[in-house]
Write a structure and sequence with these properties.
The structure holds 2 protein chains of 2 kinds. By secondary structure, chain A is α/β, with parallel strands linked by helices. Chain A contains 10 helices and 10 strands. Chain A has a single domain, classed as P-loop containing nucleotide triphosphate hydrolases (Rossmann fold). In chain A, the strands form 2 sheets. In chain A, strands 6-7-8-3-9-10 form a 6-stranded mixed beta sheet, with helices on both faces. Chain A is globular. Chain B is about 70% helix and about 5% strand. Chain B contains 15 helices and 5 strands. Chain B is elongated. Chain B starts with a helix and ends with a helix. In chain B, helix 7 runs parallel beside helix 11. By secondary structure, chain B is mainly α. The chains are: A alpha/beta, B mainly alpha. At the A-B interface, helix 3 and helix 4 of A face helix 1, helix 8 and helix 15 of B.
Chain lengths: ~260, ~375
């Protein structure tokens, strides 16, 4: 199996303000958000990062997407280093997260061309790809409507399309179905499977168990910044379902269920 | 480079298709025109020449051929006054014109050396300037190739360089211009930088392989073009308002004495000021978390900008060359020097260069800021 993403001891620490220390009920000025995380994702698989809110999933994805730098450890995307070759890495990845927004002053048509041009996609390929993707997601009917005037689901579909304008080999999706109705969510999950079938590698971060069971080939469970389990979905769920696996792990790591 | 163009094009589309934004371009120019014209009108009313006024003249060696017309047009001084006193009276606007004909003017016409008539006047005084034009008209009726007027190497316009309209202009123009340029910059920089950061659209751009320096430069170039258009609009407002502003203070002839070169220099200064302001405002906007915070951060700087514009009047008409190196203040001085006809080319270029150096420095800084996760992603 071809290694696409290799994560090696990735660590990220944040400084806590006094206020944050109070909220977190700690007197330590530093919080380790991601603690020596290591895993590998292979070509043509959907790798699920499962974890509760605040476990460090988003921080990990942001590091992989080169938006922030790790304190220590490293990761490579098709052999390119996320710290020293960040420009090259950005060409190879597509990142979808609710944090990345599109300027709603523009139309989907314009914003697609804008990002496609920033990625240096040839105009002929750009137009063909746009037509295909817009039709698949039903964006074509709204291509000339300002994004501000579109529904949440449509905005999410446009964000998804924008994240793959350059046909990247590694796709990083952070909670891609959040806030979507069941119909739109299905369009998105079907598309993820289609991408896998095309040989793309997908990192799917989520806290939705059903999504993991439906889509993921392998799963890494993150709790409190650490990877506490890493295996194929099949192996993890031999005795119990993923939900039960997760809660048992959580109890053994944290000692108790904490809300 | 291609990405840079893509970013510039996007920013242009963002601003030039937004009607609210377009208002910021043209409003300042119209405002300047209206304000300057009104100011000129008010000052003009106060200093308007009385049509029945007969200018006073002191003439030495009056040729007989001219004495009748001169007596009719001027109220001629008959007391003997020394040359020094006469000049002083002109400077003080107590005498309008002092004319010295050579002895035997009529008979020496056309002989060598060519006789020269000296006319001393004060361009800052409307009455004196009218008198000068009137006397000029009379003299032109004589065979003008046979003699010269004010051909000697001495000062005939006795207006003090520190007084008059040029002083008012040199104070008003930089201050008002800076305020308008700064407000034009303020209307776009926070929106384009802090706004994109606040709305999360900047991160979407940072995830692409485009170099941070290209994003920084693309932003600053496009924002500068926008602010510059606003600046040009202000600038046109000034040009069109000048004759109105000057009315009654100096003649319209003098108002349009600024030549194409002067206007070009003013434009060059304006461009450099815009680049410096936009890049400074962009850096401040990048520090802010929201458009609102950005506007709050920029406000104190706006005051500094306006104070620097006003600094022009505190430094007088001939400041040391070093002052031109201070960004904005130097531009104010340079602009004032052009408007008061005492332009120092060295000073003008120094001021332009200092602005450009500042702008380049801020572009580099902005690039680093775009790379900083603490600045770009800290909530």
């Amino acid at each position: 199996m071809q290694e696409i993403l290799v994560v090696d001891n990735l660590t990220k620490t944040f400084k806590l303000s006094r206020k944050q220390q109070h909220i977190e009920k700690t007197d330590k000025p530093l919080k380790v958000a991601v603690d020596k995380l290591s895993f590998t994702a292979y070509k043509g698989e959907i790798f699920g990062l499962l974890g509760p809110n605040g476990a460090g999933k988003t921080t990990t994805l942001r590091m992989l997407a080169t938006l922030i730098k790790p304190d220590s450890g490293n990761a490579t995307v098709s052999g390119k280093n996320i710290v020293t070759e960040d420009g090259e890495v950005r060409k190879k990845i597509g990142f979808l997260t609710s944090e990345l927004k599109l300027e709603d002053f523009f139309t989907p048509n314009y914003i697609y061309d804008f990002f496609s041009d920033l990625y240096g996609v040839d105009p002929a390929i750009r137009d063909a790809r746009k037509k295909e993707l817009f039709e698949k997601f039903g964006i074509d009917k709204f291509a000339e409507v300002k994004i501000a005037n579109l529904s949440t689901g449509m905005k999410q579909k446009i964000s998804l399309v924008i994240s793959i304008v350059h046909d990247p080999e590694l796709l990083i999706f952070d909670e891609p179905t959040n806030g979507l109705d069941v119909l739109t969510a299905k369009v998105v999950t079907d598309f993820l499977q289609e991408l896998r079938n095309q040989g793309k590698t997908i990192i799917l971060s989520t806290h939705i168990f059903s999504l993991v069971e439906k889509l993921c080939d392998r799963v890494g469970i993150i709790i409190d910044g650490r990877l506490v389990a890493l295996d194929t979905l099949k192996n993890l769920t031999v005795e119990k379902n993923i939900e039960q696996v997760f809660f048992d792990l959580y109890a053994s790591v944290m000692g108790e269920y904490r809300v | 480079m291609k990405s840079l163009l893509t970013i510039v094009k996007k920013e242009f589309k963002r601003f030039f298709t937004d009607k609210r934004m377009l208002i910021t371009i043209f409003l300042p120019g119209i405002l300047i025109y209206v304000i300057y014209s009104l100011m000129g009108g008010i000052v003009g009313n106060m200093t308007e020449t009385n049509k029945d006024y007969k200018p006073t003249a002191y003439v030495i060696n009056m040729p007989d051929s001219l004495s009748s017309v001169m007596e009719e047009a001027f109220s001629l001084q008959t007391d003997n006054i020394s040359e020094e006193d006469a000049k002083q009276l002109i400077t003080d606007s107590k005498l309008d014109i002092y004319i010295v004909f050579p002895k035997d003017f009529t008979t020496s016409l056309g002989s060598t050396p060519t006789p020269d008539v000296k006319m001393y006047y004060n361009s800052a005084s409307t009455n004196s300037f009218t008198a000068y034009n009137l006397a000029m008209a009379f003299l032109n009726r004589i065979n003008t190739s046979a003699f010269t007027i004010n051909n000697a190497l001495e000062k005939f316009d006795l207006a003090k360089s520190s007084d008059v309209s040029s002083q008012i202009l040199s104070i008003m123009v930089p201050t008002l211009m800076f305020a308008l340029l700064a407000s034009a910059c303020m209307s776009v920089a926070p929106e384009s930088i802090a706004g994109e950061k606040e709305r999360g659209t900047m991160a979407t751009m940072l995830i692409t392989p485009v170099k941070r320096s290209e994003i920084a430069l693309g932003k600053i170039i496009s924002l500068s073009c926008f602010a510059l258009l606003s600046g040009i609009s202000s600038f046109l407002g000034i040009i069109f308002a000048l004759p109105n502003l000057m009315q009654g203070m100096i003649s319209v002839d003098t108002a349009i004495m600024y030549n194409v070169g002067d206007y070009f220099l003013i434009l060059a200064i304006v461009i450099s000021v815009v680049l410096a302001l936009i890049s400074a405002f962009s850096v401040i906007s990048a520090l802010a978390k929201s458009v609102k915070e950005s506007a709050a951060f920029i406000s104190p700087l706006m005051i500094v900008v306006i104070l620097l514009g006003m600094g022009t009047m505190l430094l007088g008409s001939t400041p040391a060359v070093g002052y031109y190196l201070i960004p904005l203040l130097g531009s104010g001085l340079a602009m004032a020097s052009i408007m008061s006809f005492s332009s120092s080319l060295l000073g003008i270029w120094l001021s332009i260069i200092s602005n450009l150096v500042i702008a380049a420095g801020f572009v580099v800084l902005l690039t680093f800021m775009f790379k900083s996760e603490r600045i770009m992603f800290k909530k």
